[in-house]
Amino acid sequence: MAKSRLGERLARAGMVTLALVVGALVLSWAFTAFGPRTRAPVSGDHRRVVRVQVLNGSGEGGIGARVASALRQGGFHVTEVRNAERSDYFATMVVARRENVAPAKLVARYLGDLPVIRQARDADDAEVTVVIGSDRSRLHLD
Length: 142
Fold this sequence. Notes:
Elements: H1 2-34, E1 51-56, H2 63-73, E2 77-83, E3 93-96, H3 102-111, E4 116-118, E5 128-132
Parallel strand pairs: 1-2, 1-5, 3-4
Antiparallel strand pairs: 3-5
């Protein structure tokens, strides 16, 4: 009789342990699936805000807004989102609008190591322009 009670207690303890493990796994999954989504910040001078213009040259509607949202989540200041003058850009690129290309390199690294082109214009509001091309699937937006 003592052995059967001991067996019942061990079985009950095993069930409680199993229930706790399953509960912890469910909570972990729920937090991962529905919790806040943050990316690791890009290394660099975070005391300075980088102003970014997003131009959609891919011909796909809504991709400019998705890129702008990803940039905002990364701590960049998006000054403008609009369609590019053309919609047949093949390659996505980051354009440095100032002599200093470091801000453009930060944006390029954040979006997935995109090519950086220097085309300095001091009159522009944005320091960096992202031109989205038809290769938009290579962007790191999530």
